[in-house]
Design brief:
The chain is an alpha/beta fold. 37% of the residues lie in helices and 17% in strands. It contains eleven helices and 14 strands. The strands form four sheets. The protein has a five-stranded parallel β-sheet, sandwiched between helices. A four-stranded parallel β-sheet has the order 7-6-8-9, covered by helices on one side. It has a three-stranded antiparallel β-sheet with strand order 10-13-14, covered by helices on one side. Strand 4 (125-128), helix 5 (135-138) and strand 5 (145-147) form a beta-alpha-beta unit. The model is unreliable at 1-23 (pLDDT under 50).
């Protein structure tokens, strides 16, 4: 058979195989809901997060799913709402369920997430793309709730590993007054015990002054101590943490929520094909992709990956596939990402970055695990009471 004949035969076989898939269109409808409570004025010049953080990542994922889906007769649509109150989010969620949307990505606080998950019961598959609270991963986990955003424990374990391998083991910890600050700091205290760090000073930031004029006087006095290797800041909003670098009593590096930070995603991540993802996002949103954008993108891409493999959008089938050994998400992080079958958390490497550069990526090779080193980040199975998959 000639080359042209073989080519024609191959084309006919391909078309014949494809036609049954294209004969019936599969419509995949996904919901996205966002509510970020007003935290009040910030006492610094910190650049605020964009109001559409998370939503734009969801939109990009719909586009990416559609690129693959068009060859398989699958169409993807996104119904989204960014609400201004918890009541509005609850009403929007109920409306989505009534409208038959059973695949939903949520970027809401932990308490609201719990309320929505309870309302859905087993009628929806929900992805948490906003709440980092550790309690959601260690007790009372819902079997139909998965987490694409890393927990505080995952982020702080990444930082703890990095500090340990650098042998910067004596830590001055400063914690802000908000619940998020305390959650982040509690995660780091756990990481310190886990990786052999010593917190030699553990101080609460209780001042409500604007540091823009007084930081050079107040912070050296606040950070006085005999000796420490690094200052760890837990200031999620950015009230005071932006002024800690270069204002400490001792000339020491500042890490944590400011300085060098463990994050889900950052514009400086460019390896493993990430530059293409970054470029597509900038073209869509006109800004850089952040952690909430990535978490929403990862959730919807996980759905798309499952639908491609299964040929249907049934929430139960998708959930079972996500917990199976067959699922792997190509997440542009250098590793295939999978879900933990005990608490629904998406395993993923954590970049450690400063505002203009990538420093490192956790987990590090020296921290071993019997199954995967990704499970050295966050609560491992023996540490969690959750068993969401049997």
């Amino acid at each position: 058979m000639s080359f042209l004949s073989r080519t024609a035969a191959t084309s006919l076989i391909t078309l014949a195989a494809a036609s049954p898939l294209q004969a019936e269109t599969l419509d995949v409808r996904i919901g996205y809901l966002q509510w970020v409570p007003d935290q009040g004025p910030v006492l610094s010049n910190v650049i605020p997060e964009p109001e559409d953080a998370g939503l734009r990542g969801a939109e990009l994922a719909i586009n990416d799913n559609s690129t693959t889906g068009k060859f398989l007769g699958q169409t993807y649509s996104l119904q989204s709402e960014v609400a201004d109150s918890e009541e509005a989010i609850l009403a929007a969620f109920d409306a989505m369920l009534e409208n038959g949307i059973s695949l939903v990505v949520l970027n809401v606080p932990a308490q609201t997430l719990k309320a929505l998950t309870t309302r859905a019961d087993n009628n929806a598959l929900i992805f948490n793309a906003g709440a980092k609270d550790d309690a959601l991963r260690i007790s009372g986990c819902h079997p139909n709730l998965l987490h694409s955003i890393p927990s505080y424990a995952m982020l702080t374990d990444a930082l703890g590993q990095w500090l340990k391998q650098r042998q910067w083991v004596e830590i001055f910890l400063i914690t802000g007054p908000t619940d998020a600050d305390k959650g982040w700091a509690n995660g780091f205290r756990r990481a310190a015990k886990r990786f052999g760090l010593e917190i030699v000073e553990d101080k609460l930031w209780t001042f409500d002054a604007d540091l823009r004029r007084t930081a050079s006087k107040e912070l050296p006095l606040f950070t006085q101590g005999d000796d420490y290797d690094a200052v760890v800041v837990a200031d999620v909003r950015g009230d005071f943490g932006e002024y800690v670098p270069f204002n400490t009593w001792l000339p020491r590096p500042v890490v944590g929520t400011q300085g060098m930070s463990p994050v889900t995603w950052h514009r400086v991540v460019e390896s493993w094909g990430a530059a293409q993802l970054q470029n597509r996002f900038r073209e869509l949103a006109g800004r850089s992709m952040n952690s909430e954008d990535y978490a929403s993108w990862a959730a919807i891409r996980s759905i798309g990956t499952s639908v491609t493999a299964l040929g249907n959008a049934n929430p139960d089938d998708i959930r079972n596939f996500l917990f199976s050994n067959e699922f792997q998400l190509a997440g542009f992080k250098g590793r295939k990402l999978t879900f933990r079958d005990w608490n629904g958390q998406l395993r993923q490497p954590i970049p450690l970055v400063h505002p203009r550069g990538l420093v490192a990526r956790a987990p590090f090779e020296s921290f071993l695990h019997p199954n995967t080193t990704l499970d050295t980040l966050g609560y491992d199975k023996p540490e969690s009471d959750c068993r969401v998959n049997g």
